[in-house]
Amino acid sequence: MIELMIPSRRKDLGGFEVGRVLPWTKRRMVGPFIFFDHMGPVDFPANVSRKTDVRPHPHIGLSTITYLYDGEIVHRDSVGFHQTIRPGEVNWMTAGSGISHSERFDTIREHGGPLHGIQAWVALPESEEETAPSFVHFDAADLPSHSEQGLSVKVIAGSAYGLTSPVQTHSPLFYAHVELAAGRTTEVCGGYSERAIYVAKGSVRINGEQYETGQMAVLSPGAMPAITAIEPAIVMLLGGEALGPRHIWWNFVSSSKERIEQAKSDWRAGRIKLPVGDDQEFIPLPEDPPPPKPEPMS
Q: Which parts form a coiled-coil structure per UniProt (predicted)?
């Protein structure tokens, strides 16, 4: 019923660490989800260094979903959107043919405070990879939800548990935020060929195995295991239909290696516009890793 477990790996973003789950060497994607980072929980002091901010950087061929449990992030992008991201809201940015954006901690910098959330990337179908860039925001109250004793479900995108999000997606997928009181059980939703359960807080039991914060259980096709909270828990349910292989390099996703090379060239040459209102700095294109050294001859 459980195909494999993916552990999160700590990654330093320069100002704080995240738990990187996808992509992984043994599992690159779950449905169209190709990237999954768990941010925090972390408490920032007032006047936290601007090194913590994520400076302007580019994307192609994907949609990003920033979803917070706690804290605030200020988003600016090259389409012209300026949006403060708060807990429980949906902030869905489609890069398509190319976009740049920044993620800054302006509010937290002023007062200090916590940050906890998930950033996920969804690959676009080949026919939509060059779609026009866009950004949509939905307040928490706009998202369909269901609550009963010891259980709450919010559908961020797609359809799950009989609820359908207003977020327009480019391929069949689902993404849901589920909270369980200790001892409460719920069944994972079906209807998609690829699905996973990520433990964002607490610990749960799935198919007799215990899963802790920072672990993702990838389900076998058709599996419908129960999720039981050992302690109060937050789990994220995600998946959808596979799109086929994708290449990923830095912040670029594409079905074509040549398109990624073009995006690298475009960013290096300044052909991708910087965010409106945040165009005084940017993250330079990383260098390609050096080729492996040849083995010495015996």
A: none
| Contact yes or no for 16/42 (Cβ under 8 A) | yes
The answer to whether the CB of 129 falls within 8 A of the CB of 103 is no
In tens, the pLDDT along 212-222 reads 999 999 999 99
Q: Please tell me the predicted confidence (pLDDT) of residue 291.
A: 64
Task: Pull the structure tokens for residue 168.
Answer: 């327009």
Element (H, E) at 194: strand 194-201
Closest CA to 227 of 209, 200, 201, 239: 209
C-alpha angle 22-32-73 in degrees, rounded to nearest 5? 60
Beta bridge partners of 5: 217
Give pLDDT tens digits for 72-113.
999 999 999 999 999 999 999 999 999 999 999 998 998 899
